[in-house]
């Protein structure tokens, strides 16, 4: 059945990548969008019935409340609070960057939520200034800051007070965040692992696997004696991470996964798209400062004077992730804009080609050859 163009919204109406993908996968091709005016001159244009997006929008929209419901009226009249700048469509553009402009946002919200319906509550909501109540009381009763300090207190505790049974980290909360950030590396996923040395021959395949336990030194995610398989999303990231000296060459093994691996993605400190969390959005939003602290801790440059103590919080979280049954973790490189992985085992990885990179320059414009 052809799409009803009067109720359709197209992929170009949105800037949020999750929605764009959703429309491309579930929509139909149209010639011209009546909401944003985009057409198919430069390639296919997909659109979807606006009503099919309400399930995705609901968790986000209903995080907001009509300000009159919780904010004292004198406060609303003072402090230059602008009613008309704080409608739900303004918020979706300003707070979440979902749309390019307010006009398109307003049109689509009205299409989705039928502004002229007789549902009094929805009508009031769409005609009032809205805020996230928890944000508004940020300074007084700040659950988010409490979360942030919880992480800092935990880091101090594990470094200087209780090493193996710390009490200051709420593991239920941590588990909830891990579940919300699960990522499947599909069978055949390609990843890169390297070693550096001042030798003229490349390492053989066996030497590119994770080191045996007795050789496992302390690392960002692993304590001494427990060996993890560290790898990266590209050869460039591998070289940035290894930081070879001028006389050192780098051998990179190109590995592929032999089955799906379930890992936790702690590489992005911001909520990339509010739609990816579904009904969990509100609780994730409240925990976002905690998550940001955790992710920054995991991705930061270590203290060169005392990596043993500095790595402890990340090692603890990593071990908990392992105990929860995950295969590893994805995290941001502290050396470049790439991504790293710490996989707890290498038995589900198969080595493919090996590349030998001689004296990669500091700017990493390197020549490499397959060996
Ligand atoms: Zn459009």
Task: Provide structural commentary.
The relative contact order is 0.12. The radius of gyration is 25 Å and the shape is globular. A hairpin with a 6-residue loop joins strand 11 and strand 12 (about 340-345). It has 2 domains: about 5-135, no CATH class; about 185-265 and about 305-370, Diphtheria Toxin, domain 1, CATH 3.90.175. By secondary structure, the protein is α+β, with helices and mostly antiparallel strands. It has a 5-stranded mixed sheet with strand order 6-10-11-12-8. The chain has helices at about 15-25, 55-60, 75, 90-95, 100-115, 120-125, 135, 145-160, 170-180, 235-240, 280-285, 290-300, 305-310, 310-325; strands spanning about 10, 30, 45-50, 65, 130, 180-185, 190-195, 230, 250-255, 260-265, 330, 340-345, 350-355, 370. Helices cover about 35% and strands about 20% of the residues. The structure holds zinc ion.
Give the topology, please.
Layout (H helix, E strand, L loop, with lengths): L7 E3 L6 H10 L1 E3 L14 E5 L4 H8 L3 E2 L6 H5 L10 H7 L7 H12 L6 H7 L3 E2 L1 H4 L6 H18 L10 H10 L1 E4 L4 E8 L31 E4 L2 H8 L6 E9 L3 E6 L14 H6 L1 H12 L7 H4 L1 H12 L4 E5 L6 E5 L5 E9 L10 E3 L1
Parallel strand pairs: 10-11
Antiparallel strand pairs: 1-3, 2-3, 4-5, 6-10, 7-9, 8-12, 9-13, 11-12, 13-14
Helix pairs in contact: 4-5, 8-12
The protein binds zinc ion (ZN).
Using the coordinates shown, work out and report the CATH topology of the largest domain. Answer: Diphtheria Toxin, domain 1
Write down the overall geometry: globular
Helicity level, as a percent range? Answer: 25-40%
Q: What is the total domain count?
A: 2
Q: Which compounds are bound in this model?
A: zinc ion
In spatial order, strands of the major sheet run 6-10-11-12-8
The sequence of SSEs as H and E is EHEEHEHHHHEHHHEEEHEEHHHHEEEE
Give the class-level CATH name of the largest domain. Alpha Beta
What is the strand content?
15-25%
Alpha-carbon Rg, integer: 25 Å
CATH architectural group of the largest domain: Alpha-Beta Complex
Q: What do the pLDDT scores average to?
A: 88
- Major sheet characteristics: 5 strands, mixed
Identify the quaternary structure here: single chain
Q: Uncertain regions: pLDDT < 50 for 5+ in a row? A: none
Instruction: Report the total helices.
Output: 14
């Amino acid at each position: 059945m052809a799409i009803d163009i009067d109720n359709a919204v197209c992929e170009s109406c949105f800037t949020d990548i999750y929605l764009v993908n959703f429309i491309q996968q579930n929509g139909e091709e149209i010639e011209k969008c009546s909401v944003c005016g985009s057409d198919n001159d430069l390639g296919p244009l997909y659109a979807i019935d606006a009503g099919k997006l309400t399930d995705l929008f609901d968790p986000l929209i209903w995080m907001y409340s009509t300000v009159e419901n919780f904010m004292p009226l004198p406060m609303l009249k003072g402090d230059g609070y602008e009613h008309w700048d704080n409608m739900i469509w303004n918020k979706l553009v300003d707070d979440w960057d979902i749309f390019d402009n307010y006009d398109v946002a307003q049109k689509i919200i009205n299409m989705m939520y039928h502004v002229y319906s007789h549902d009094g509550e929805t009508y009031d909501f769409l005609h009032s200034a809205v805020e996230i109540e928890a944000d508004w009381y940020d300074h007084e009763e700040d659950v988010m800051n409490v979360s942030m300090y919880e992480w800092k207190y935990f880091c101090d505790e594990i470094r200087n007070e209780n090493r193996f049974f710390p009490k200051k980290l709420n593991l239920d909360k941590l588990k909830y965040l891990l579940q919300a950030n699960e990522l499947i590396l599909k069978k055949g996923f390609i990843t890169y692992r390297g070693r550096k040395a001042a030798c003229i021959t490349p390492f053989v395949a066996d030497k590119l696997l994770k080191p045996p336990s007795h050789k496992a030194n302390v690392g960002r995610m692993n304590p001494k004696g427990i060996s993890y398989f560290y790898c990266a999303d590209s050869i460039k990231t591998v070289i940035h991470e290894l930081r070879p000296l001028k006389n050192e060459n780098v051998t990179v093994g190109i590995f592929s996964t032999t089955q799906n691996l379930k890992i936790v993605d702690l590489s992005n400190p911001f909520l990339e798209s509010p739609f990816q969390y579904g009904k969990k959005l509100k609780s994730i939003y409240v925990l976002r400062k905690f998550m940001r602290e955790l992710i920054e801790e995991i991705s930061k440059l270590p203290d060169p004077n005392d990596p043993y103590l500095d790595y402890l919080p990340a090692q603890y979280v990593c071990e908990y992730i392992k105990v929860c049954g995950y295969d590893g973790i994805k995290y941001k490189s502290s050396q470049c804009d790439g991504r790293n992985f710490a996989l707890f085992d290498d038995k589900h990885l198969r080595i493919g080609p090996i590349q030998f990179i001689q004296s990669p320059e500091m700017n990493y414009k390197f020549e490499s050859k397959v060996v």
